[in-house]
Amino acid sequence: MCQHYENQQHQGCNCGETGCDCGEGCCGSGNHFQRRYQTKAEQIADLESYLSELKQEVQAVEERLADLRK
Hints:
The chain is mainly alpha-helical. It is 47% helix and 6% strand.
């Protein structure tokens, strides 16, 4: 394990990894500057991705309901 691993998730990292297999390219050594704000373009991209995931979830729920109603 690396030095920045803490309680099943990397400290200061939002990669979602639960181990230290993501490497330095993801969360670094833990001793560097962490951005706190996103650009407008980054916010839009993140929200569009989130919306896409939500739409897929809605579709999965609708399919499950259809199967249960058969």
